[in-house]
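Incident log, structure service

09:12 report received: a user says their structure output differs between two submissions of the same chain.
09:20 pulled the input from the user's history:
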Amino acid sequence: MAVAENRIVDVAESSGKTTPKTARKDDVKILVVDDTEGGHDLLEVLLFQIGYKNLVKAYAADDALEQLSRQHEAGEPIGLILLDILMPVVDGVQTCLMIRADERFNEVPILMVTANTDVKKLKDAFEAGAMDYLEKPISKTELDARIGSALRLKKELDRRKELLAQLQKANKKLELLSSKDSLTEIANRRTFNWFLEKEWRRSIRKNHPVALIMIDIDFFKLYNDTYGHQKGDSCLKEVAAIISKAAKRPGDLVARYGGEEFVIILAETDLETAKSIAENIREEIERTSMFHEKSSISNCVTLSLGVAAMTAARGATPDKLVEAADSALYAAKREGRNRVCVFTE
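09:34 re-ran on a clean worker, output below:
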């Protein structure tokens, strides 16, 4: 690299213009990548004059990557890179590609330093990940302005990235809230409908059965009228917690269907297994012994449960399974409550 290419041109004084200063320049660690000592010396003088004194040198692509890694591991990451575009063996464009290939450094601003303003070369540099370029001979004013612009842009991009992360986090929270029943904190009816449709399609593909248990708290209106809505809410939450413990597999879903009704979707589960799970739930509720003096079948809270299972067929809808489980639940109520009934064709 010829020294003539690197002579410093300072137009700040001659133009009478003042260059906006970037705040806390000493905090910005700049990596200067140039294959000549003369190139480093001239840039170092220029950078010192405009206030950037925290500099790191590299003379080739592998050296640049080593410096980036070393500073990163030391907790003092590089904040900006000045990269000479014309270097032997591995040029600036390839070096830029290598830097961008490492996810630790793919957002560090890179400014190409070049005497070659060939459009194709600059296009290659921008496509490789350069943010801007500086043309030799270098103007101190332009260097200050372009570094300041690059750092401000990086700060704005970081701010937007943080805002996007916060928005995504908020959206996930909203999505979670919209998928859950606010009282019992289990899935709501909307999530149940979506999950059942998904499992129904999977049943068609895999030719595996899917089971559904519909659950109703016996004489819950009387419970609410007797003990008040606050006590009724506690009862709903207790029942939801017990049901949730019985359906713990990733392919299972417990949801509040509405009012005092709950549903359980059991993926790849046959009728006998689903019936056994339903019976365990019924017995566990009885063992809990939540007092219910107005129940005509027991002195504690009890459940009626309807169970259905089927392998989905093409052309059929999951409504068929819901209707079957609902029919079994109705039978359980009709036959005296506090029992499990299964649907049979």
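09:41 both user submissions now match this output. Likely a transient worker issue. Closing.
09:42 reviewer note: The chain has two domains: 3-163, 189-342. The chain has eleven helices and twelve strands.
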